[in-house]
Design goal:
By secondary structure, this protein is mostly helical. Helices cover 80% and strands 0% of the residues.
C-alpha cells in the first residue's frame, strides 16, 4: 500500500512539472510566430497542423499502451519533445515553426493517454478514480496559474527563442526524473485470447463513450478559440505577454477552485459533463453579448473545465474494462485534438467576419442538444429491453 502511494506521488509530481513546463509557452507562441512573419491565417494553420499530428499520434498510441505498458510512452516523448522545443529557438521562419510544431504535436500525442491510463491503474472504484483525476487536474491547474505568468515574464525579459530553449531543457530533465522514479503498476500481460482484445471500433460503439467524446469535442473547440484569441491581444492591441499570461491564469484559478470541490464526484459523471457544458455555453453567450468581461469569463470557463474534465476521465474508466483504457483515452485525446484543429482553423478564417465566441456558443449548444438526445435514446432502449 505504501509503495503504491509513493509510486502515485511520483506520477502526480511528474504530471505537475510537465503541465508547468508545457504551459509556459502559452503567451509566447502567437507573438513569436508573428515575429517570424506568420499571418493570422498561418498561425491558425500551424496550430491546426500540430493538433492534426497530435490526433494521428493519439490514434496510434492507444493499442500500443495497452500492449506494451505506459511508462515507455511517457519517457520517450518527453526526450523527443525536449529536443524539438530547443530547436524552436533556432527557427528562422514560420515554415520551420510549422514543421517543428507538427513534429512536437505528434511526439506529445503519446504522452497524455499513457499518463491517464497509468493513473487509472491506481483506483479501486469510480469514486477513487474521480479523486485521482481531480488531484491530477488540480496540480495541472496550479501549474497553469503560475506557468503563463512565468512564460509571459520570460518572453518579455530573455526573449521568445530563449524561452523555448529553457522549456526544452526542462523537459529533458523531467524525462531523466521519470526514468528513475516512474513505475508502471500494472504489468504488461500478453493475451492469447483475441476475443478479449478491444478494437477501436468496439470502443467507438460504446454509447457512454460517445457522450464523453462529443462533450470533449465541444469543450476543446471552445478552448481552441481562447488559445487563439487571447494571445492575439499582444499582436493586435499591444497587450504585453505578461498581461495575456495573467488572463490565462484567471482560467486556471477557476479550474482549481472547482477541482477542489471533491464532493461533486459523488454525482453521475455524465450529468456533471452536461451541466458543465451548459454553464460554459451560457458564459459564452454572456461574453459576446457584452454582459461579461474577458477576465471574468475566463474564470467561469475555468470553473466549467474543472467540472467537465475529471468527469469525462471518470466516465471513460467506468464505461470500459482496464484492458481498453489505453484505446479509450487515446481516442479521447484524438477527439480533443480534433476540436482544437477545427477551432484553430475556423477561428483564423472567420474572426474578421463574425465573433469566434458566437460560433463556439453555437457548437456547444448543438453538441449539448445531441448529447441530450443520445442519452434519452439510450435510456429508452434500456427500458424497452427491461419490459
Amino acid at each position: 500500500m505504501r509503495e503504491a502511494t509513493i509510486d502515485k506521488l511520483h506520477i502526480f509530481i511528474t504530471m505537475f512539472i510537465i503541465s508547468l513546463i508545457m504551459s509556459v509557452q502559452g503567451p509566447i507562441f502567437t507573438p513569436y510566430a508573428a515575429m517570424l512573419g506568420a499571418s493570422s491565417v498561418m498561425i491558425g494553420i500551424i496550430l491546426s497542423a500540430s493538433q492534426l499530428a497530435n490526433l494521428t499520434g493519439n490514434l496510434i498510441v492507444g493499442p500500443l499502451v495497452d500492449r506494451y505498458g505506459k511508462r515507455l510512452f511517457i519517457i520517450l516523448p518527453l526526450f523527443i519533445s525536449g529536443v524539438l522545443y530547443i530547436a524552436h529557438g533556432f527557427t528562422e521562419n514560420s515554415t520551420d515553426l510549422l514543421i517543428l510544431r507538427s513534429l512536437n504535436g505528434f511526439a506529445l500525442a503519446f504522452l497524455m493517454p499513457a499518463a491517464l491510463a497509468l493513473i487509472s491503474g491506481y483506483a479501486t472504484n469510480s469514486r477513487h478514480q474521480g479523486k485521482n483525476m481531480a488531484i491530477t487536474g488540480m496540480l495541472g491547474m496550479v501549474a497553469n496559474i503560475v506557468a503563463p505568468l512565468i512564460g509571459g515574464k520570460l518572453g518579455a525579459t530573455v526573449g521568445y527563442a530563449e524561452t523555448y530553449m529553457i522549456i526544452g531543457t526542462a523537459l529533458i530533465f523531467i524525462a531523466v526524473y521519470t526514468i528513475s522514479f516512474l513505475r508502471d503498476r500494472q504489468m504488461v500481460v500478453v493475451k492469447n485470447n483475441r476475443s478479449k482484445t478491444l478494437s477501436l471500433l468496439s470502443v467507438l460503439k460504446n454509447h457512454q463513450l460517445q457522450l464523453v467524446y462529443l462533450t470533449g469535442f465541444a469543450v476543446m473547440y471552445i478552448h481552441g478559440v481562447i488559445i487563439y484569441e487571447v494571445p492575439f491581444l499582444t499582436v493586435e492591441h499591444g497587450v504585453s505577454t505578461m498581461n495575456t499570461g495573467q488572463l490565462f491564469s484567471f482560467m486556471a484559478i477557476g479550474t482549481f477552485l472547482s477541482l477542489s470541490l471533491f464532493f461533486i464526484h459523488r454525482f453521475d459523471p455524465i450529468k456533471r459533463m452536461m451541466f458543465g457544458l451548459f454553464s460554459l455555453c451560457i458564459s459564452l453567450s454572456a461574453l459576446f453579448n457584452g454582459l461579461l468581461e474577458l477576465p471574468l469569463f475566463l474564470f467561469l470557463m475555468g470553473v466549467c473545465f474543472g467540472v467537465i474534465m475529471p468527469a469525462a476521465a471518470t466516465a471513460v474508466t467506468g464505461a470500459i474494462t482496464r484492458e481498453g483504457h489505453g484505446r479509450a483515452f487515446g481516442i479521447m485525446s484524438a477527439v480533443y485534438s480534433l476540436g482544437m484543429i477545427i477551432s484553430s482553423f475556423v477561428t483564423s478564417v472567420i474572426r474578421t467576419i463574425i465573433s469566434p465566441y458566437f460560433i463556439a456558443f453555437l457548437i456547444g449548444m448543438l453538441v449539448l442538444t445531441l448529447i441530450g438526445y443520445l442519452k434519452f435514446r439510450t435510456q429508452e432502449s434500456v427500458e424497452s429491453k427491461v419490459y
